[in-house]
Amino acid sequence: MIGTVDHGFWNQNSELLYVYPLFGLQAGTMPVQIEETRFIQPSWWDWRFLEKSDLVDTVWGMGQGAKKTLPISMIVEQSWDGADESAAVDRHWQSADEIALNIVIALRLHQDGEFVEPAFTVRFATVGSLIVRHPGPYRQAFYERSWEDPYQFKSDCVETVSRLYRLVSDYRSGARQGNLDIALENLRLSHGPYFDDAARLAMLFAALESILGSLRGMIGGVGLPDRVESIFLAFECDPDGTDIWLRRDGREIRNAIAHGSGTVPAEDLSGAVRLLRTVIRRCLTLFLSFVVQWESSSERLIRGGGTSANHSPVHTFNHVLSRASGRDHNARSLLRDLAAFE
Amino acid sequence: MMALDGHELSSSSSVPEGIVEGHYAHLPGTRLSGINRAPFGDGVLVALDFEAWALMDRDFDFARRYYSRSQPVFYYSNSKGSLSDWMDSSVATVYEALLLATSARLPTPRYSIRYGYSKGGTVRNIGPFERDAIVYGTVDVAAVLGRKEIAKAEEVHTFVRGRADAFALPEIRQAMTTLERTALPGFTPLNDFVHSVIALEALVVPDLTRNLRESFSQRTAVLLATSADEIQSIFQRARTVYRIRSGVLHGKMNDPFSVFGEDGRAVMWSDGRKWLALAVLRLTALAVAIGDCERPLDEMRRRLDLAWSNQDALGDLLRVWAGVPT
Q1: Contacts of B319 (CB under 8 A, 6+ apart)
Q2: Nearest Cβ partner for A141 among B130, B175, B209
Q3: pLDDT of the residue at A217
Q4: Which residue, B244, B118, B122, is CA-closest to B190?
Q5: Pick from B43, B67, B40: which is nearest to B56 by CA?
Q6: Contacts of B227 (CB under 8 A, 6+ apart)
Q7: Residue A315: enclosing H or E segment and its boundaries?
Q8: Nearest residue of B to residue A140 by CA position?
Q9: Are B190 and A189 inside 8 Å of each other by CB?
Q10: pLDDT value of position A258
Q11: Predicted TM-score of the model (pTM)
């Protein structure tokens, strides 16, 4: 869908800009820079020129949009040589989408909170007099939404999100691991709009098991809850009963969801979503760091797990966790270094 | 367009031309091919043209060009009750039949719009896709429905409606939930496959902790075969499916496509969802054949095990499967 800009923020420079609205995300001072990406608060006029004005007027009523809060948006800038606008937009969509997705993953790994991924709502590109819109399936659904637990993107998030972004970018530009991709996708989907908590848990258990194996499985003689405890200790955090929950309630809830058996009180489900997300955020951050390290040099990792180069990264990762659970000093030290992921 | 505003349908299988009073639910992810309307269940599948749709929804009268490209399909029936009740009963069954018959990634109609149209006005009930799935086609077309596909879906619809109690079994509901959930936007084919196979495992091997791959493959082979000749080949494919599932989930297989080439892609796309859908239909038929039973799924799995090694037991199951639409 193509429109033209005749004035406003978007054509005050001659750059090629990709715009990714983040409905739900709340922030303090704008703009904020995360590596090559800017977060901005669009004005009503900015938005009206980006989005179809007749659609916005239909959703909000003619002239009512100026009173509304527009979604904070990510801006990814790409180089433009002044040649054919449409071809330039097409040429850079994919790399801009990759950058935006890496930011989204970094935000999800950093903390809990609601925002909707731009791929679900709408993405824009603008250069010169051209606007291109890529609407997603929930394009209009969040204009009037009230958020129970909005994502709070505060200024003290910037440094950590930047580091996570670099980690995610390093991983996604190198050799990818199928199970890690599945886990990251399921963590993101667990924040997806309109899923109930049972659906979110099905995704979160799939994410957990794709890295740590079955809830009832043993690796190196150590069960999944003890390996989760090793993950928390790597970040110098108290597991706060998470390991115990995984042994008892977690397993029961997992089976109830997978088999449709039994009923679980709604508050237990929502508590389980929060708890599992905390586990998975730490688990995936640590494993991302592990995989990126594995790409450059796997020797220390293999030594830490007591495995061999023939084993997969996730196999070795779990053996490092198991050894750390058995108070192996080297394994614990390795995990702490990975948790720092600088 | 032939405007038939106010024209009453004379029977449940009549096909409305244009628009008539009754309820309309958009079916996201579908498109009709070679026809623009067809009787289905108690109503009609219909690709309403823009003028007909605009009689119910006047806010998007600027969107004719997009709408014409999108070619949205609606389920119509001559109902007069509440839209919610109609969605929970008639449309839910139509949707399940389409989901099972096509095994395509069709998002639930609850996410799009339904209309109650009458001479006195239109009642609208709008889901989170708002009008975009109708106007702009923001949901990918997952099932193109020609006469052949509709005939099969109609057969499944009749089957589902006649076995409501068996379809209400918690394990069956859970499998249906997986088919519905993984049809929503955001799931990649690989993740869809993983969730579908996990759901199939929950149906066939939840009682086991050892030799899962062999047991999964044996029970799945018996469950999905249409004749004794097919069992070995399905058994081998089931082993492949389980190998891909384990390889992906346990990090032993980073790119199943590169390992299995085009076959791997075909296995993922077709076997995950298709097998889960067929398993649901056949286990439902088996539940009916078994009759009253305290733990019907346990009894079904016992019969699957028996049929793997006993020709008579296999013959019994194949006779049950013969009554299931394929």
Answers
A1: none
A2: B130
A3: 86
A4: B244
A5: B67
A6: B318
A7: helix A313-325
A8: B130
A9: no
A10: 79
A11: 0.89
